[in-house]
Amino acid sequence: MPVVFDLLQRDTRAKLDGPRHPEKAHRPDQPVLKKPDWIRVKAPGKPGYAETQAIVRQHGLVTVCEEAGCPNIGECWDKKHATFMIMGDTCTRACAFCNVRTGMPGALDADEPARVGDAVAKLGLGHVVVTSVDRDDLADGGAEHFARTIRAIRDAAPTTTIEVLTPDFLRKPGALEKVVEAKPDVFNHNLETVPSLYLTVRPGARYFHSIRLLQRVKELDATIFTKSGIMVGLGEERNDVLQLMDDLRTAEVDFLTIGQYLQPTKKHHPVIRFVTPEEFGSYASIATAKGFLLVSASPLTRSSHHAGEDFARLKAARLERARF
């Protein structure tokens, strides 16, 4: 019953708060392709899932696992792995692919960093991922809130390694520096798609700004691992993806993730095609040959999926490369 009750609560909140995506409400419905067999996942329901859900609720926290409708939530939450989404559940941008609520966010919750830290400690996480909505309404885009959350996790769970998945901090001078100064172990910023699709898929962002952001992290602190990810199946061409890999390597990005785009609703950008597991394998081979320390490419790959195991692999790959 807890899962059913929670869904009812979310449905009630949606009715009170209005449409989740008001900017998409009057758009024509897009076709929805039938998912192939390799996309299927099991519904959540194991004991670990309920325990993770209870801790998240008790601390009044938001997770991108729920807000973005991640297909891996059952697997991750059963292992008590959750990706915390700070600064609220409402984003100031309206990307065509994203299921996170859009609109004008509320004020920052000053106690949220401490609650995240406490939740990380109670879940016993060896590695945690912290992301956020875009907060273009804030002078620093929420960079100081990220830094406070990193410090709070360090205080509550000193041995936990920390990965941040940040917005692009577009037109927010000095914001990136605040986050890097707090020394996360991994700095992730997703490109999401190839540059030719930005105007339709990610209109509020700028491709080369995002590339430069990742490059700047390495200039500020070369010890921090950098990471980025894209979705495929949005209409990109293979050569576009290969060029994107080169752009990321020019910025010295360590880790690339590639996953299948899944359409949240009929009002979102359509899935143009489902990329086969064999094609994902090819992308992984090429990206590895181009010099990434680590590559994760599969239909169900997501930025935070297996993040703890991937961090261990990243460290091992860096040590191995340093030997030569």
Low-confidence stretches: 1-16
Architecture in CATH?
A: Alpha-Beta Barrel
Order of helices and strands: HHHHEEEHEHEHEHHEHEHEH
Sketch the major β-sheet: 7 strands, parallel
Bulk shape: globular
Number of helices: 12
SSE layout and pairings?
Layout: H1 2-17, H2 47-58, H3 64-67, H4 73-78, E1 83-86, E2 90-91, E3 101-102, H5 112-123, E4 127-132, H6 143-156, E5 161-165, H7 175-181, E6 186-188, H8 198-201, H9 207-220, E7 225-232, H10 238-250, E8 255-260, H11 277-289, E9 294-297, H12 307-322
Parallel strand pairs: 1-4, 2-3, 4-5, 5-6, 6-7, 7-8, 8-9
Summarize this, please?
It is found in: Cytoplasm. 40% of the residues lie in helices and 12% in strands.
Notes on the protein architecture:
It is a single chain. The protein is an alpha/beta fold and 324 residues long. It has a single domain, classed as Aldolase class I (TIM Barrel). The chain contains 12 helices and 9 strands. It has helices spanning 2-17, 47-58, 64-67, 73-78, 112-123, 143-156, 175-181, 198-201, 207-220, 238-250, 277-289, 307-322; strands at residues 83-86, 90-91, 101-102, 127-132, 161-165, 186-188, 225-232, 255-260, 294-297. The strands form 2 sheets. A 7-stranded parallel beta sheet has the order 1-4-5-6-7-8-9, sandwiched between helices. A two-stranded parallel ribbon has the order 2-3. α7 links the parallel β5 (161-165) and β6 (186-188). The termini are far apart.
List keywords for this structure.
two-stranded parallel sheet, globular, single chain, seven-stranded parallel beta sheet, 324 residues, alpha/beta, TIM Barrel
